[in-house]
Amino acid sequence: MKDKVGLIGYGSMATALAKVLTNNIVKLNWIITNPEVLHCIKTHRHNSKYLAYVNFDLNKLELHSSLESGLNNSDIVFISIPAAFLDNVLSKVDKSFFKNKKIVVAIKGLIPNKKMPLHQYFEKVIDIPLTDYLAILGPSHAEEIVMEHFTHLSLVSKNPLMFEMVAPLLDSYFLHLEYDENLELAEYAAVVKNIYAILAGMCIGYGLGDNFLSILITKLVKEMKDFLKYLKNDIEVDILQPLYLGDFLVTAYSQFSRNRSFGILLGKGYSLEYSKIEMKQTVEGYYGTLTLAEILGENIKKFPFIYSVYRVLSEKSPARKEIDNIINMMWENKY
User: Fold this and answer.
1) Among 8, 147, 151, 266, which one is least packed by beta carbons within 10 Å?
2) Are 62 and 39 in contact (CB under 8 A)?
3) Which fold has domain 184-331?
4) What is the widest separation between alpha-carbon atoms in the chain?
């Protein structure tokens, strides 16, 4: 492939993507704005902050400390930055640097200060036509990707030609790649599954067992379907697909899930502030909950489980109180 490929980000998923991409291309333009991480990769061939056990062949990397230089040398740009901080990073460079680029995002969240899903942000703020935009979604922990565990990825775009362009870059025996065109639904589903994973974690931290969790998950899946129908009632969503149910399940049950771990701390009775500090990494569901609440306004009350998490994260309602309310409502068949 003649297109030059770039990557912005240095977190877990960015590191996993760098590993996969360098297996398929001659050279990757990796843009790393953190001096410590950049220095560590240059001198020790690994990321000091995330997935430090993954080593890189420096001959396959062109490392950049600035967005400008990396973007100038790239035609296809992969981006893996937490949604909560994406605008702060990209706004530091003139959007003309993104002109005529193909954008591939591996991000699950909303843009807080813009109150937008990711595809809308790139279209309206960065001026990327949706025909040049693709989102990597589905059940996918970075830790398992670098361990080459079999993983299903959905490559979601309005333009099937984007799938044909991006799929060869990710080609791996352990990655199953599937095309989907329902961009808005897929990106919003990735937001709400993080919110639900926080709730699942809260219930685990509270001490509730698998029996209860199985019923809760069943009801959360129903609410997810109702939420997606609320967004676009002209599209019938197959909630059982990996893009929806699969991604939700792995986030709710996996030990690698930050959202679940965050919820467990809250369910054990730790304060919101302590739980945020203890996580040490970005919890997308926290920011996603607050931003989605702003987007929905009073309509958030149509989705009781999302609203319960919002009360914990915004109004600082005790997690255990919310769980007690959920148990009572479920037992009375009101959820």
Assistant:
1) 147
2) no
3) N-(1-d-carboxylethyl)-l-norvaline Dehydrogenase; domain 2 (1.10.1040)
4) 62
Residue 1 confidence (pLDDT) above 60: no
| pLDDT bracket for residue 235 (50, 70, 90) | confident
Q: Residue 316 — very low, low, confident or very high, per pLDDT cuts 50/70/90?
A: confident
User: How do beta strands 61-64 and 116-117 pair?
Assistant: unpaired
pTM: 0.95
In one-letter notation, the amino acid at residue 105 is V
What pLDDT shows up at residue 236? 86
Find where tokens 């000091």 sit.
48
Contact between residue 25 and residue 89 where contact means Cβ atoms under 8 Å apart: no
Amino acid type, 225: K
